[in-house]
Specification:
By secondary structure, this protein is mainly beta. It has two domains: 1-67, UDP N-Acetylglucosamine Acyltransferase, domain 1 (3 Solenoid); 69-92 and 99-185, UDP N-Acetylglucosamine Acyltransferase, domain 1, CATH 2.160.10.10. The chain has no helices and 25 strands. Strands 1-4-7-10-13-16-19-21-22-23-24-25 form a twelve-stranded mixed sheet, with no helix packed on it. The chain has a six-stranded parallel sheet with strand order 3-6-9-12-15-18, with no helix packed on it. A four-stranded parallel sheet has the order 2-5-8-11, with no helix packed on it. A hairpin with a 4-residue loop joins β21 and β22. The protein is globular. The N and C termini lie far apart (47 Å). The mean pLDDT is 93.
């Protein structure tokens, strides 16, 4: 029985990797040992997936993105071109931090989108359906549905799962005028 996913001939998939049905891995990519990738994902050119990384279903990772050890992407996450994850808070060349104990975990929750050239500093969590603008630097946790941008990234509003901005109905409630979803903060 053949594979039920696609890996371009120029890409490498190490041993002990799980790849879900319908996933596509394009040119010059590398998936490291122990990685788990869900169904229906699409990885562009030159994507690196580190040891033990967990990626959910229907995740889209654009060209030139490295997902390092300690990063978890839940379902429907979007990683824009050349965005960056870090995995060590205090890197030093002379005193390398290169064991799992040195890595700081990062969690990107369901439906979050990260714009092109954004940087996600390790140890942060992006909430459900959070939106990070292109070129931003995320240095602290981002709440569910928050739209952040800047350096460092700050909340500038809220965005629905459907992609429209949403307004606060009150201090603890959001309502989308496009799709009608009600969100409790």
């Amino acid at each position: 029985m053949g594979k039920d996913y696609f890996v371009h001939e120029s890409s490498y998939v190490d041993d002990n990797v799980k790849i879900g049905k319908g996933t596509r891995i394009w040119h010059f990519s590398h998936v490291s040992s122990g990685a788990e990738i869900g169904e229906g994902c699409n990885f562009g050119q030159n994507v690196f997936i580190g040891n033990g990384v967990k990626i959910g279903n229907k995740v889209k990772i654009q060209n030139n993105v490295s997902v390092y050890e300690g990063v978890t992407l839940e379902d429907y996450v979007f990683c824009g071109p050349s965005m960056v994850f870090t995995n060590v808070r205090t890197p030093r060349c002379e005193f390398p931090r290169n064991t799992s104990a040195d890595y700081t975990d990062t969690l990107i929750k369901r439906g979050a989108s990260i714009g092109a050239n954004a940087t996600i500093v390790c140890g942060t969590t992006l909430g459900k359906n959070a939106f990070v603008g292109a070129g931003s630097t995320v240095t602290k946790d981002v709440p569910d549905y928050a739209m952040v941008y800047g350096n460092p990234a700050q909340i500038h509003g809220y965005m629905c799962a459907c992609g429209d901005t949403i307004v606060k109905a009150d201090a603890k409630h959001l309502k989308c005028s496009r799709c009608g979803v009600d969100v409790d903060l």
